[in-house]
Amino acid sequence: MEELEPSELGTHEYWNHRYETEIANYSAHGDAGEIWFGDDTVERILRWICKTPEIAKDSSIIDLGCGNGMFLIDLSNEGYSNLLGVDYSEKAVELSRNIATAKGYNITYKQADILDDLEGTYKVIHDKGTYDAISLSENAKENRQKYIVNVKNIMNKDSFFIITSCNWTQSELVEHFKEHFQLHQVVPTPTFKFGGKEGSVVSICIFKRI
Length: 210
Description:
By secondary structure, this protein is an alpha/beta fold.
């Protein structure tokens, strides 16, 4: 399978600069920044989590590449309480903490590199765009494999791994993860037709550990 061309979106420097700008915007205007993949995608993921009876309100949930932390704030608004956001950008973590503190939320955010070992096990592992960014890094194939193994290591047989991607299709994600994961469910997203073929702009897949 072909790798994607490296991009600045796969660099630590890009994201630190991006979130440094968003910290300034939040301080000046109270703007929390961009919702990656849009509100509709977030609503679909939240709806799936809320309708899954195995995920209790106190289930441990980790957001990989939490960005501005808004996804966990949305989960907190739904009553979920055991929430951790990690990001390798210290500026993203600073922004997340600023927003959560200002709004009175008790959510933990910390700096962590997903390509290093992560600690603990979680009921829900959520990724919205982080695997995409890793796929745009230098040495992407090696980094993707590190990511996959590290995600597997923070899961048990009852965990759910929710991944949203705009760079990879459902079938490509299944192929990437097949050594350690099996597809549990697909969250439907809007489709389009072009040239007689139907596809989705965004793929949302739920995996279980093999």
